[in-house]
Write a structure and sequence with these properties.
With about 575 residues, the chain is of the alpha+beta class. It catalyses: ATP + protein L-histidine = ADP + protein N-phospho-L-histidine.
């Protein structure tokens, strides 16, 4: 044991990897044939089970389609009215059959080419081609009484045809008995079982009475001895050993029996097991050769690199020179060392940057205290001087400008009440109307209930500015009108800004919301709303060139609580 402890790490790993490579190989050789053979058999059984389940589901899917067609025709008002109506002459009956009855059945047959014929049997003694016949034609059939007693479609296999027959409720409601029979090609019904990917298999399908209605045996030469009779399949299916699989159709009640060749499965198992063992021996040899090389390079070399990096850090160089994507303990150790060094560097830089940010925040706070105070005092002085000199228009525009900046600055908050946002917009529009000599009309209708909800700061001013500058100002023949109104539903608020300006095309609408074009603040407004509340909120633009533009702002219904972000 002492000799092993004193060995170099490289030689220790070579010895350990050699044992790991050869001991499992001997064990695998001993038990592989039995275990792998069992696994392959189970895999083949599972594959067969899944394959036959898919084929059964395909059959049920087709059966359901035919049942739906049968129900559609059995409840058809066209058929019901035609067979209960008293026609004045045979010509009128013939005309009704050729213009209404025949096209209905023909359209169904054309869309489903696997249908051989569709025949309606009624109490009336009427015959029309193969599509309409009296009940007397089928009263001697073995299934006739069963159909009369059942309210659901019945499936009958007759030679190379499969029949879907059922009573017609549309006639039963009018006191008459009617039966519809849809004849489907036998091969089309069972096509999902004909070309399965497996080889050397057999399928029996039996109806509810145990009568075989479908039999398909697909065996290659040399495997005929493995074919089973129907009775053998039924007997073996009761053993539940997986050799004979059974499935029941939910749509028809038919029972499916599927089995594989014992010999074929055994041959496949031996072949696959042999191939597997060759692969195992080859991979084991490669693993041993790789272990000898990887021991010195993959483990010892990584430890030596980590040791060199530790020495560099001890000397004051906070740089990570060794990295690893490996998921073993050494890789984890290298990544942990790197994360530790990066964390130390980050903390050093964070302390330095936090000092700078602290000074910036102090300056920003000072600006927010000084600038609004200075601005409001200046505007107040201008307003006083205008009143003293009798300049009412200057006083009015100064007050509007004061209201505009008060609501725009909003004490540094980025949300406000809709009431303050509307006041900001109104102050801006008052200034614009004076600048335009009141050459456009302004119509604002906002309910008081809406004014108490939350809104991002400064979202209306860019929109009305755009409506004036790029819509109303470009009008030549009519006076501009700007409308602002709002609605609400259970959880949303909608604010509409509508102008009768020149409108815009789709490219301009897209650019306003998606490009940072000069003169348009719409993109910024749309992005801020989405960042605050989510992608379902924001701006929606509708515009017709020559008629005007409607911008709808969608906001969540949140009661304003003076939130600071």
């Amino acid at each position: 044991m002492k000799i092993f402890r004193n060995m170099k790490l490289r030689y220790k790993m070579i010895l350990i990897y050699s044992l790991i490579a050869f001991v499992p190989l001997v064990i695998v050789d001993t038990f592989a044939m039995q275990r792998i053979g069992h696994l392959v058999n189970e895999q083949e059984k599972s594959t067969s089970k899944n394959m036959i389940e898919v084929a059964k589901n395909a059959l049920d899917g087709d059966i359901k389609v035919y049942n739906n067609l049968s129900n559609y025709l059995a409840y058809s008002d066209t058929v019901g009215n035609l067979l209960t109506y008293q026609f004045d002459s045979e010509y009128d009956l013939y005309k009704a059959l050729t213009t209404s009855f025949d096209p209905l059945l023909t359209s169904v047959s054309n869309f489903h080419t696997d249908i051989s014929s569709i025949t309606v049997y009624s109490q009336k003694n009427i015959s029309h081609s193969t599509t309409l016949m009296p009940l007397s034609k089928i009263q001697n059939e073995s299934w006739y009484n069963q159909v009369k007693k059942s309210n659901d479609p019945l499936w009958i296999v007759h030679g190379k045809n499969v029949l879907n027959v059922r009573k017609m409720p549309i006639l039963e409601r009018k006191g008459q008995l009617g039966i519809i029979a849809i004849t489907i090609n036998y091969d089309d019904v069972f096509k999902s079982f004909t070309n399965l990917k497996n080889k050397n298999y057999g399928i029996y399908i039996a109806d509810a009475k145990g009568n075989v209605i479908y039999n398909h045996q697909n065996f290659e030469h040399g495997y005929y001895k493995d074919m089973l009779s129907y009775k053998q399949c039924v007997a073996l299916s009761k053993k539940k050993d997986g050799h004979v699989l059974t499935k029941t159709s939910e749509e028809t009640g038919w029972t499916l029996y599927y089995y594989n060749s014992f010999t074929s499965m055994s041959d496949n198992t031996v072949q696959k097991t042999t191939q597997f063992m060759i692969v195992v021996v080859f991979i084991s040899s490669l693993l041993m050769a790789f272990a000898i090389w990887a021991t010195s390079r993959g483990i010892v070399a990584r430890l030596e690199a980590l040791q060199d990096n530790v020495k560099a850090v001890e000397e004051g160089a906070l740089e990570v020179t060794v990295t690893s994507e490996d998921q073993d303990e050494i890789g984890s150790l290298i990544r942990g060392f790197g994360e530790m060094i990066n964390r130390i560097k980050f903390l050093i830089e964070e302390v330095y940057e936090s000092k700078i940010k602290e000074k910036n925040f102090e300056m920003r706070a000072l600006q927010q205290q000084i600038n609004p105070h200075f601005l409001y005092n200046t505007l107040s002085m201008i307003n006083f001087m205008a009143i003293e000199s009798g300049q009412n228009d200057i006083s009015k525009i100064t007050l509007s400008l004061s209201d505009f900046y008060r609501t725009a600055l909003n004490k540094g908050n980025n949300t406000c009440s809709l009431d303050d946002e509307l006041k900001n917009m109104k102050a801006y529009l008052d200034i614009q109307q004076m600048m335009h000599d009141y050459d456009f009309e302004l119509d604002i209708e906002i309910d008081e209930e809406i004014r108490g909800y939350e809104s991002p700061n400064l979202i209306l001013q860019p929109i009305v500015e755009n409506a004036i500058g790029h819509g109303i100002d470009l009008l030549e023949e009519r006076k501009g009108v700007l409308k602002v109104y709002a609605t609400e539903n259970e959880d949303q608020v909608f604010i509409m800004v509508e102008d009768n300006g020149v409108g815009m095309d789709e490219e301009t609408k897209h650019r306003m919301l998606n490009e940072n074009s000069k003169g348009y603040g719409m993109r910024n407004v749309n992005q801020r709303i989405k960042l605050l509340y989510g992608e379902e909120y924001g701006l929606h633009i509708e515009s017709v060139i020559g008629e005007g533009t409607l911008v709808t702002i969608r906001l969540p219904k949140i009661v304003f609580k003076n939130r600071n972000i």
